[in-house]
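User: I'm curious whether this sequence folds into something compact or stays loose and floppy. Could you predict its structure so I can see for myself?
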Amino acid sequence: MLAEMVQAGTLPPVEERLPVDPMVIEPIAEVGNYCDTWLRCETNPGHVAARLGAEPLVMWDRDAKTILPNLAHKWEISADGTEVVFYLRQGVRWSDGEPFTADDIVFWFDDVVMDAELTPAFPGWLKSGGEPCTLSKVDDYTVKFTFANPAGLALDNFAFSGNSIINYSKHYLQQFHVAYADADELAAQVSEAGFESWYQLFGSKVNTSTNPDLPSLRPWKIQTKDYTTTAVADRNPYYWKVDPEGKQLPYFDKIFWNIVQSTDLIPMKIVSGEVDMQAMYIGFPNYTLLMENREAGDYNVHIWDAGWSGSVMFFNQTRTGDDELRELLRNPKFRIALSKGIDRADMNELFYFGLTGDVIELYSERVQNDAEIQDYFVYDVDAANAMLDELGLDQRDGEDTRLLPSGRPLLLQLFGHGSYPTHRDVAEVEGQFLAELGIKTNIDFVAGELWGPRLQASDYDILCYDADIAPGGLFWLAYPRTLFPVQSSTYWASLWGWYYETGGANGEAAEGEAAGLVDLWEQVNVTVDPDDRAALVDEAFYIGAKNLWFAPIFGGDLSLCVVKNGVTNVPERGVLAYPVWSPKLYNPEHFFMKQ
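Assistant: Here's the prediction. I'll summarize afterward.
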């Protein structure tokens, strides 16, 4: 699509658009050909800057275990782990042709991160030992981050959270920044755009999914400002990656999205042939429908590892509004009894046709070899009932429901996010199993806008959602909420996580062995040696499993990846993990429609 522009003189030839040493992408299957439009579905086109276009300084390899160079062609970490130097790939250009240099990173740090109006709270991923880092420009293509303490998770964090760095092209955004723009001109722009402050205007201009004028370093750049039913992204003419033959990527000229109001509509778009490749928003319950319509839709269906556990019962340790239930949920014997009352083999057959593994396979080797923990997941109704009786829950009402010591029926609320119907379906079956133990349940799944407030209020009993662990003990430290109570989205103790996240301003301080997990997390953050860090994580796996603050129901989750016949370089087996920006780690810029 760029040839005519080059011939007309409106775009330089490709050799002038590429860096001296472009990044070479080795194909998964074969070197490709250029092709027209990649058809997809979305609720919005935001993933062009993340799932399909993440370009941090460093990024995850296709094994989802190794970090590789990206915009930084190399890095150096000091022996004590307090200094991280990135050497940028020279000659990379923004999508408008302007050079990408250290000045852009300095602008992001000094004028965005350090500006209290744009960034009210210093990002946690840029801290070590609770102290913010500093940034210095070494030369035009070298930057150095300096930490007050060893930054054990620096590369993990730059590979995940660092994707935001490349949203900030100084040459474009400085016209909207109070430190650079003419005051009168900026005030006029703020007023014209209908905002009250300059930082609101700035925030709108840096929105990668709604501002077509924002320069990009990603393979495709959004062209649609006000998307409603469709959106389009065009190839970046200055993209800095090539195939082994030297052809500039991406192969697809465009990405076209059908914007749907509900993800439930996506399977029908696939069946009607309106999707070329997609792994997002296709739940495994659609497996039979999609398999039966492969010929009609002209596609294949691959089964990927979702990159997380599948549905989990998170036992809320910070339950508010009901002290009696809070005390019960904090009793490990109660949690174990409920876990043993779930027939996981039956649920695996029901929801995944028996294709997921054993729950114990989610954990580290130490946990897998622990006979006591293994028994937590063994279906045994008699043992579960005996444990509940021993807890003083041996009295029942006329409906055979167990009574709490106060005399009221034992009713547990199974809470979840309404946008993920699979978890609700699982919760309904969990409720049936718990009823066999004499426990009533109430299913309470809420809309997205109510989800965050409910977490912060912590007024739920058991939350039904995925845990961020995957088969084989896969766990990405840039997303620690499942093992460590350090984020408000630590579903088994949201108030403990919120307390850590806000430095004690909100929530409650962790107690007991959970407080030890917070200490472990602090050690992980300042541990540079990867083997020592792995040992700390292994200890966290063990503590979490032993206490059973969350009980997985499945041995992993499965995602469906739909690939139109002819689309090449999409792996048959992959992992759709958010912390590694999948499917970006498979280089979608080299996916193509074979001619």
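Summary: Residues 113 and 122 are 7 Å apart (CA to CA). The first helix runs from residue 3 to 8.
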